Amino acid sequence: MTYRDLAADPVAHLDEDGYTTPVIDPARCTPAQAEARALGEVLAGELVAADAVVIGVPLYNFSVPSTLKAWTDRSVVPGLTLGEDYSGALGGRTVAVISARGGGYGPGTPRHGWDHREPWLRHLFAHLGVTDMVFIDAELTLARESPAMAASTWAGPRTSPWPTPTPPSKACSCPCPWPDDMTVVLQAWRRGRQLPMGRRGGSYLR
Length: 206
Description:
- The chain is 31% helix and 13% strand.
- It is built from 6 helices and 5 strands.
- Strand 2, helix 3 and strand 3 (94-100) form a beta-alpha-beta unit.
- It is elongated and about 65 Å long.
- The two termini are 13 Å apart.
- The model is unreliable at 153-206 (pLDDT under 50).
């Protein structure tokens, strides 16, 4: 299993060297371009070697953190995650995205459709050949900081196919947005589907 923490060890954002190196003859690369090429090959190689990918991601201003965007930009590499004809090369793999978002963004809520992570990630991995994607969302993680949200939403009906989480019973001692009992979501995942962890192992990316 490969674990990559993009918060503790962020990938450099895409720059001119990283953008141009895939179309330059390796023999003509500058040292900076060669370094960018090597980084892309490492990141793309981790995806190619995985049978399944699990991505944990929060919602930042209705989208993904820039650290995840930087990782994806560096991981799209012709000849590895893309074929020589630029068709997706990651077919047959499962990608599961486990996410946290502070408010309610599901069907019937005022901000339904404001979470742009899912469509973007679906389009990105479809471009890479992935057809099996699953999203598991932990919503209302700011309910403990917003009593009005907790009172009006935790007790209300849910359209999600996953079990209704138990409202947080105590204040979290850390600044993270994750619920105290994340196992509610993970147990639901285990009951519903299993990631195929096969001969190459899984790649867990956060």
